[in-house]
Amino acid sequence: MFKQYPLPYDYDALEPSIDALTVETHYCKHHAAYTANLNMLAEKAGVEEMEITDLLANLDKIDDPVLRTGIRNNGGGFYNHNLYFSELSPRGGGEPQGKLGEKIRETFGSFEAFKDKISDLAVSQFGSGWAWLSTDKQGNLYISQSPNQDNPISLKTGHTPIFTIDVWEHAYYLKYKNLRAEYVKNFFNIVNWKAVEENYNKAVE
User: Which domain does 61 fall in, by range?
Assistant: First the structure.
C-alpha cells in the first residue's frame, strides 16, 4: 500500500508563506485523493507491491490504457506531493550547504542564479504543473518543468527529482489568488535544504 508522507509540522506552521487552510486542504484532500486512487488502481493493475519510482518509470508495461493513464496521473500526484511536503519546514529558508550547495554554485553560477532560473520555470509553466531540480547518478544537476502530475521519472529523463515547486492552483490560490510569482518567491522561505541535500546524497552513486 502506498502511504502519504506524514507531516512533521502543523498545518499553520508554514505561515505566512503558505496559510494553514491551503496546507490542510492540499494535504488532506488533494494528496489524500491521489494516494487513495493510486492504491485502488495499482491493485486493479496488480502492481501494488512495486516501488513508486519503479512504477512511474515503467508505465508502458501496464497494458490497460485506462489503468496506465490513471496510475500516471495519481501515481505522479502521490510521488510529487510526497516530495513536496517533505522538503518544507517552518525553520526553512537560507541556502543549501555541503555537496549540494557546491554543485548548485558550480552548475548555475550562484544560488541566486539557480533560484531565478527555477523560479522562472515555475512561474512560466502553462496551467497546472511543477518545476524540478533533479540529478543523475553522477551528481549533475538539471532543472525542468512538467505539466499536470508528470515528473522527470514518468517522463523517462533518467534523472531523480530532489526538489520541486508545486504550481497547481490548489497549492497557492487561497492566499495568493493569481499571483503565482509571489507564491514562488515566498516558497523559498520554507524550503528545508537539509532534506533536499539528503535527497541529493541518496540519489548520487
Answer: 20-86
